[in-house]
């Protein structure tokens, strides 16, 4: 099946759009509007606990990597990637606290800085995937057939693929795609880390590449933790290629995750069509 | 530090294969379709990047070469 396939109805798409906006604003809010109180509480608590603990552990130095957009000397919006996936809380933190660098301390003095960055980034990523999960609930709910309701939530498929490349495809029965995507993306990431001597996964050194590397999801986060103490011992001839590989692997993982969402949504829509014939 | 041209070409080919796989998997859903479209996508990307590299190398060795 190609990507030229079925699409949800206008009303379903409108409901998905509003659910996604509310979920990104406050993770769990989209679920609450869908009367999914259990999921709403789960996503809200998960994202806020991760964000608060991440900011606390890193002494708010995440704010040094953000960009304030102001008007007349007042900051209106504070873009901090990837934490902005948990949008409103990040805005509140950016107004309430200052980075310890403003006090003249150097970020490398903070012992749990890297863990803090990972936790706050997880909060933002999970905020975005809470939106995908809420959108998946809308898709399944709008289906009339009972077999469509039994299909995998597209948001769940997307999250599984994000946490481990290809896992969402495997879950929806696309085992060949799951293995192919998982193997190739993971290999690209590992080769990239090897070319950088496992020492090139550092937010302070290159914060924008770091965002791409963090898009590797669970495997990337674990790698970041395990390689935290690695240091460069020599000039590496292929370090730039390694950085490109690890960052591209993260972006490929996002593409795979979007594909997992789309395919799972197609499963629901095609079941609906088949049942109506 | 400049790496070996052979290694750089191998790295380009490897990256091209992975890019081809991701692009094919995004476009198609079945094993046969994915495998059929993979070589063309891999080859196209590798040739285009190698072409840009050749142009960049030529320019760096001629008009963009620092003088005196």
List descriptors.
heterodimer, A: 277 residues, mainly alpha, 2 domains, two-stranded antiparallel sheet, 2 strands, 4% strand, B: mainly alpha, 2 helices
A few lines on this structure:
Helix content of chain A is 64%, strand content 4%.
Describe this protein's structure:
The complex is a heterodimer of chains A (277) and B (68). The two termini of chain A are 19 Å apart. Chain A has 277 residues and is mainly α. In chain A, strands 1-2 form a two-stranded antiparallel ribbon. Chain A has helices at 10-25, 29-33, 37-57, 87-96, 113-142, 146-149, 154-163, 167-171, 175-195, 207-214, 218-226, 239-276; strands at 67-71, 74-79. Chain A has two domains: 10-142, no CATH class; 154-277, no CATH class. Chain A has twelve helices and two strands. In chain A, 64% of the residues lie in helices and 4% in strands. In chain A, helix 7 (154-163) runs antiparallel to helix 12. The two termini of chain B are 22 Å apart. Chain B contains two helices and no strands. With 68 residues, chain B is mainly alpha-helical. Chain B has one domain. The A-B interface holds A 1-3, 174, 176-177, 180-181, 184-185, 187-188, 191, 235-238, 241, 244-245, 248-249, 252, 255-256, 258-259, 263 and B 1-4, 7-8, 11, 14-15, 17-19, 21-22, 25-31, 33-34.
The number of helical elements of chain B comes to 2
What sort of overall outline of chain A do the alpha carbons produce when their principal axes are compared?
globular
Total of DSSP H or I helical runs spanning 4+ residues of chain A? 12
Instruction: Work out the count of structural domains of chain B.
Output: 1
Task: Provide the spatial order of strands within the biggest beta sheet of chain A.
Answer: 1-2
Radius of gyration of chain B: 16 Å
- Content of β-strand of chain A: under 5%
Major sheet attributes of chain B = none
C-alpha Rg of chain A, in Å? 20 Å
Number of strands of chain A: 2
